[in-house]
Backbone:
């Protein structure tokens, strides 16, 4: 899995979107939208991805990240 985030301007302000991609299928498997970019935003997206793919946290899955670069 891989992840990322984006910032979008809306009529009511800014919207931050965090997402998790399945590297093999290139599908978004987890996402979250909020008006902030605090730690829980990408973590919630990752939790959704794990739940949707039925992956246990201790299963040894790999999450690829470029650390925002």
Residues:
């Amino acid at each position: 899995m891989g992840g990322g985030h984006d910032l979008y301007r809306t009529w009511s302000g800014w919207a931050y979107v965090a997402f998790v991609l399945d590297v093999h299928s290139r599908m978004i498997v987890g996402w979250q939208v909020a008006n902030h970019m605090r730690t829980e935003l990408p973590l919630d997206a990752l939790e959704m991805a794990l739940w949707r793919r039925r992956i246990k946290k201790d299963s040894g899955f790999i999450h690829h990240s470029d650390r925002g670069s």
